[in-house]
């Protein structure tokens, strides 16, 4: 008795044929066996139940589709590389001299170059001077000064992209004027932050000029409990006097500029005298005052308003971080204007 077997044709439910299974069995018996696989790829495909040639066909179709979408490989433009487009006539070959003259004589390009210099140029300047500012003026160790200075460049992680997002947002709301005004406002705030950073220590004394007279250096030793209990040196301690006689390589007392700071490598004699194990220490000009040295009251320090003793290191780092955010945002805002010049 014949059995009706539904066969789906063309993946559509409405195309159904009912065939007798006997002719199908006869056709299958008369069909020659498939040849053995000639490659590893064909063997793997056969084991998976998928013809290798079918896989190749699908891969080729995917490659053609990627090329049509311009994502198969990198190029100068979505349409292809400059050389290929110029050879085919799809793109006119440009003269580099004409491009240069056009850019130089474009007043908008010149103004945007100056504007970018006021943000990226400031970034390069800060990267060069920030560590020296914290070390020489704020009187912190070179290691801590480097970490504080790196905060400026670290804002690149998000601030420049934030400026680009702000530019796009203002463009969507106000058009090109929105891009220009947002760039001007952010860059103005950047300038204000620069002035604020300078004003924090504007009225204080700094190690200037560098050719001025030098004075005996002191070391500030932390007031640890064990030092107090053993009645050993703590606070501002001279390198010459009160039982210490630490000299430099020339056999002379260590000296620094007024309000100055210097990092030096410790010697065994210095470690024994000061009761420390540090490999590097800071020698400084102490705050203006008096202390007992070898049984006599002696004046120490030469300024009572040194930046290194002002306690403004923390606020300076915070201002530098905020300053950097606006600098990087201004760069991103400039990039938002460039394509329209």
From TrEMBL:
<feature type="region of interest" description="Disordered">
    <location>
        <begin position="27"/>
        <end position="50"/>
    </location>
</feature>
<dbReference type="InterPro" id="IPR036259">
    <property type="entry name" value="MFS_trans_sf"/>
</dbReference>
<dbReference type="InterPro" id="IPR044772">
    <property type="entry name" value="NO3_transporter"/>
</dbReference>
<keyword id="KW-1133">Transmembrane helix</keyword>
<keyword id="KW-0472">Membrane</keyword>
<dbReference type="GO" id="GO:0016020">
    <property type="term" value="C:membrane"/>
</dbReference>
<dbReference type="GO" id="GO:0015112">
    <property type="term" value="F:nitrate transmembrane transporter activity"/>
</dbReference>
<keyword id="KW-0812">Transmembrane</keyword>
<protein>
    <recommendedName>
        <fullName>Major facilitator superfamily (MFS) profile domain-containing protein</fullName>
    </recommendedName>
</protein>
<feature type="transmembrane region" description="Helical">
    <location>
        <begin position="307"/>
        <end position="327"/>
    </location>
</feature>
<feature type="compositionally biased region" description="Low complexity">
    <location>
        <begin position="39"/>
        <end position="50"/>
    </location>
</feature>
């Amino acid at each position: 008795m014949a059995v009706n077997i539904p066969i789906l044709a063309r993946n559509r439910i409405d195309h159904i044929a009912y065939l007798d299974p006997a002719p199908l069995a006869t056709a299958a018996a008369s069909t020659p066996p498939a040849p053995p696989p000639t490659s590893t790829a064909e063997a793997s495909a056969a084991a998976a139940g998928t013809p290798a040639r079918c896989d190749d066909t699908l891969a080729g179709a995917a490659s053609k589709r990627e090329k049509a979408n311009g994502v198969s490989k990198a190029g100068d433009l979505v349409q292809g590389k400059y050389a290929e487009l110029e050879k085919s006539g799809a793109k006119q070959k440009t003269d580099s001299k004409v491009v240069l003259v056009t850019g130089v004589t474009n007043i908008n390009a010149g103004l945007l170059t100056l504007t970018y210099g006021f943000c990226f140029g400031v970034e390069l300047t800060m990267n060069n001077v920030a560590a020296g500012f914290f070390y020489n003026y704020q009187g912190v160790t070179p290691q801590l000064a480097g970490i504080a200075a790196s905060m400026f460049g670290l804002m690149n992680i998000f601030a420049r992209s934030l400026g680009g997002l702000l530019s796009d947002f203002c463009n969507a709301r106000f058009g090109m004027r929105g891009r220009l005004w947002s760039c001007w406002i952010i860059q103005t705030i950047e300038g204000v932050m620069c002035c604020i950073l300078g004003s924090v220590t504007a009225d204080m004394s700094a190690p200037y000029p560098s050719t001025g007279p030098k004075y005996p250096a002191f070391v500030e030793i932390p007031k640890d409990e064990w030092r107090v209990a053993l009645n050993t040196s703590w606070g501002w301690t001279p390198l010459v006097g009160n039982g210490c006689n630490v000299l430099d390589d020339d056999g002379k007392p260590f000296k620094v500029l007024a309000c100055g700071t210097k990092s030096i490598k410790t010697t065994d004699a210095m470690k024994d005298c000061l009761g420390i194990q540090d490999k590097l220490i800071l020698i400084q000009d102490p705050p203006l005052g008096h202390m007992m040295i070898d049984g006599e009251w002696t004046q120490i320090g030469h300024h009572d308003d040194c930046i290194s003793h002002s306690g403004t290191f923390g606020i300076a780092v915070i201002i530098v971080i905020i300053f950097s955010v606006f600098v990087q945002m201004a760069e991103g805002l400039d990039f938002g204007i460039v394509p329209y010049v």
